[in-house]
From TrEMBL:
<dbReference type="GO" id="GO:0008061">
    <property type="term" value="F:chitin binding"/>
</dbReference>
<dbReference type="InterPro" id="IPR050314">
    <property type="entry name" value="Glycosyl_Hydrlase_18"/>
</dbReference>
<dbReference type="InterPro" id="IPR036861">
    <property type="entry name" value="Endochitinase-like_sf"/>
</dbReference>
<keyword id="KW-0732">Signal</keyword>
<comment type="similarity">
    <text>Belongs to the glycosyl hydrolase 18 family. Chitinase class V subfamily.</text>
</comment>
<dbReference type="Pfam" id="PF00704">
    <property type="entry name" value="Glyco_hydro_18"/>
</dbReference>
<dbReference type="GO" id="GO:0006032">
    <property type="term" value="P:chitin catabolic process"/>
</dbReference>
<dbReference type="InterPro" id="IPR029070">
    <property type="entry name" value="Chitinase_insertion_sf"/>
</dbReference>
<feature type="region of interest" description="Disordered">
    <location>
        <begin position="445"/>
        <end position="499"/>
    </location>
</feature>
<feature type="signal peptide">
    <location>
        <begin position="1"/>
        <end position="20"/>
    </location>
</feature>
<dbReference type="GO" id="GO:0005576">
    <property type="term" value="C:extracellular region"/>
</dbReference>
<feature type="compositionally biased region" description="Low complexity">
    <location>
        <begin position="451"/>
        <end position="466"/>
    </location>
</feature>
<dbReference type="InterPro" id="IPR001223">
    <property type="entry name" value="Glyco_hydro18_cat"/>
</dbReference>
<keyword id="KW-0147">Chitin-binding</keyword>
<feature type="domain" description="GH18">
    <location>
        <begin position="20"/>
        <end position="425"/>
    </location>
</feature>
<dbReference type="GO" id="GO:0008843">
    <property type="term" value="F:endochitinase activity"/>
</dbReference>
<dbReference type="GO" id="GO:0005975">
    <property type="term" value="P:carbohydrate metabolic process"/>
</dbReference>
C-alpha cells in the first residue's frame, strides 16, 4: 500500500480552512523571550511552566501574566502544573475523592489569583514510569489510572467551561499506562487540548541509539492516541527545540542507528549517569567559542554568557566552577575550565551541525561523532516542514505545541518555521480520523486517467482497503464531501473522488 500523495493532496484540497493552534511552553530555566514581534508570530497560546502539583493554590509565575499578555496580545496565557519529576501531588490527590476535590479547588484558586486563561496538567506520568519509578514502582500507582480522568473531570467542573484545560501526554506507548480504552473517553471529554510529547522518543532508559524525534516516531505517537478515540481537533503535535546526545558503548561508525549506548541511568536508583543530555538552540550552545576572548572568573561562575573561565577546576554545564563529578562530567564545558572527564559536548555539537545526516526513511536528523563517542538526534526546520506535510495537514489535527520558547532563542528559526507552516495555505482542521475515504491518482496532466472502479472500504484503517496496487489510486482518511467525480483541468497534479 502506498500513500505518497497524501500530504500534498491535503494541502491542495484544504487550502483556506481553519487556523491551527500554536501552543508554546515558556519555562523558567530558559527565560529568554523574543523582543521582536516578528519572532512571536503565530503563537496563540503561551503556557508558563511550572506550578507544583502539591502547592498549586499559592503559585505565582515568575514573569507576571500581564507582562506575557503585553508581549503576546493575541495569545491565551495558561499555567502548566507538574513537569518531569513532580508526581507526588498528583498521586496523593488521586487516592481519594476528597483529595481530587481539593486539588480541583486549588487549581481554581490559582486561576482566580493569577488571572490565567487556563491550565495544563503535565503529569509525567499517571500510572507510573515517572522519574521516581525505581523508588515508587508502578504497582504502587495503580490507583492513578482511574484517578486521572476523575481528576480532570473535577478540575473541569471547578474551573468551568470558560477556562482552558489541556494535558501534556507521553509520546512513547509504554508510558501511556493511564490512557486506555476504558479511561480515554472521560479524559477527552474533560480537556480542550491534548499536547502530545512526540519527542524524547529515545531517552536515557533506552539501550540503543534512535531518533528522539522523527516523522515516523511522531506519526506513531499520534496514531496511538487516535486508536483510543482522541479527537483530532483537540490534538497538538509536539516539537522539541533541542537536540539530544548519548554516549555510545563502542564505535558506531558502521551503523549509527541501533548502536549500543553506555547506560544512561543507574539501574538501581534510576539516577542520571551524566552520559546523555539535551542541547538547546540557545546562543550559548550554537555559537563556537573564541577562547582568545575568555577572561578569568573571580566569582565562581563560568561559561559563554560571561565569557569567563575557571582559574581552577571544571566549568559545569550550569556555569559553576568546581571539581565534583557533577562539575567535571555531564556536558562539562571544556573551553571554560580544566579537568573535564567527559566528552566535549559543545565541541561535538558544532561537528554534528556541520556534518549531520538526514534519515529520509524515518524523517529524523542525526550524527555520530566518532571522535567524542557521541550520537546526536534532533529536528531541523526542513523536518518541521515534512511533519506538517505528512502529519499535521494530512491528519487534520488541531494544532502544534513546542517545548520551549527560550530554547529557540539563538535565532528563533524553529518558531519561524512553524509559524510559516501554519500561515501557509492548505491547513485544515475538519478531518475525522477513520470516518470517510476517497481515492487519489497522481497525474502530471499529460494524459487523462480512466475513472477507477472502487470497492467499498471494509475498515476504518486506510491501509486495509485499496484499488489495484499499480493504478495509482490509494485509500486515505478524509471527511465526507461529495459523491461526484471532480473533473480536473489540464496540468492538475491530483484528481480525486469522494466516497
Amino acid at each position: 500500500m502506498r500513500f505518497p500523495s497524501l500530504a500534498l493532496l491535503a494541502s491542495c484540497l484544504l487550502a483556506g480552512e481553519a487556523h491551527a493552534r500554536f501552543v508554546i511552553y515558556a519555562d523558567e530555566w530558559h527565560p529568554t523571550r523574543p523582543t521582536n514581534a516578528a519572532d512571536r508570530t503565530g503563537i496563540d497560546h503561551v503556557v508558563l511552566a511550572f506550578a507544583m502539583a502539591n502547592n498549586t493554590a499559592a503559585f505565582q509565575p515568575k514573569v507576571p501574566i500581564s507582562t506575557i499578555r503585553s508581549e503576546f496580545p493575541d495569545a491565551k496565557v495558561m499555567i502548566a502544573i507538574g513537569g518531569w519529576g513532580d508526581t507526588v501531588g498528583f498521586s496523593e490527590a488521586t487516592k481519594t475523592d476528597a483529595g481530587i476535590a481539593k486539588f480541583a479547588s486549588d487549581v481554581q484558586t490559582m486561576l482566580t489569583n493569577t488571572g490565567a486563561d487556563g491550565i495544563d496538567i503535565d503529569w509525567e506520568y499517571p500510572g507510573g514510569n515517572g522519574a521516581d519509578y525505581k523508588q515508587v514502582p508502578n504497582s504502587a500507582k495503580v490507583h492513578e489510572i482511574k484517578g486521572f480522568p476523575k481528576l480532570l473531570g473535577a478540575v473541569r467542573t471547578a474551573i468551568g467551561k470558560d477556562k482552558l484545560l489541556s494535558i501534556a501526554v507521553p509520546g512513547k506507548k509504554g508510558d501511556m499506562i493511564a490512557f486506555t480504552a476504558e479511561t480515554a473517553p472521560d479524559i477527552w471529554a474533560a480537556v480542550d487540548y491534548i499536547n502530545i510529547m512526540s519527542y524524547d522518543l529515545m531517552n536515557r532508559r533506552d539501550t540503543k541509539t534512535a531518533h528522539h524525534t522523527s516523522v515516523v516516531g511522531a506519526t506513531t505517537a499520534l496514531e496511538n492516541y487516535l486508536d483510543i478515540g482522541a479527537p483530532v481537533d483537540k490534538i497538538n503535535l509536539g516539537f522539541a527545540f533541542y537536540a539530544k546526545y548519548f554516549t555510545t558503548a563502542g564505535d558506531c561508525s558502521a551503523s549509527p542507528l541501533g548502536c549500543s549506548i553506555v547506560a544512561a541511568e543507574d539501574p538501581i536508583t534510576g539516577k542520571d549517569t551524566l552520559t546523555s543530555g539535551a542541547w538547546t538552540y540557545e546562543p550559548a550552545h550554537m555559537v563556537p567559542v573564541d577562547t582568545s576572548q575568555l577572561k578569568p572568573s573571580y566569582d565562581g561562575t563560568c561559561g559563554p554568557e560571561k565569557m569567563t573561565k575557571c582559574t581552577t577546576g571544571c566549568c559545569s554545564q550550569y556555569g559553576n566552577c568546581g571539581t565534583t563529578k557533577e562539575h567535571c562530567s555531564g556536558a562539562c564545558q571544556h573551553a571554560f575550565g580544566t579537568g573535564c572527564v567527559d566528552a566535549d559536548v559543545a565541541g561535538s555539537w558544532q561537528i554534528a551541525m556541520a556534518n549531520s545526516v538526514t534519515d529520509e526513511a524515518q524523517g529524523g536528523q542525526y550524527f555520530y561523532d566518532k571522535q567524542n563517542g557521541l550520537f546526536w538526534t534532533w529536528d531541523t526546520t526542513a523536518l518541521i516542514t515534512r511533519k506538517f506535510q505528512q502529519i499535521v495537514r494530512s491528519y487534520g489535527i488541531g494544532g502544534v505545541m513546542a517545548w520551549s520558547l527560550g530554547e529557540d532563542s539563538f535565532d528563533w528559526s524553529h518558531i519561524h518555521q512553524i509559524a510559516n507552516e501554519l500561515g501557509s495555505s492548505g491547513y485544515g482542521t475538519k478531518q475525522p480520523h477513520g470516518k470517510q475515504s476517497y481515492a487519489v491518482v497522481l497525474n502530471d496532466g499529460s494524459e487523462e486517467p480512466t475513472e477507477p472502479t472502487l470497492t467499498d472500504p471494509t475498515s476504518t484503517d486506510p491501509t486495509s482497503t485499496d484499488t489495484t496496487e499499480d493504478d495509482g489510486y490509494y485509500w486515505v482518511d478524509m471527511p465526507e464531501n461529495t459523491d461526484t467525480w471532480s473533473e480536473p483541468t489540464e496540468g492538475d497534479d491530483y484528481w480525486y473522488k469522494w466516497e
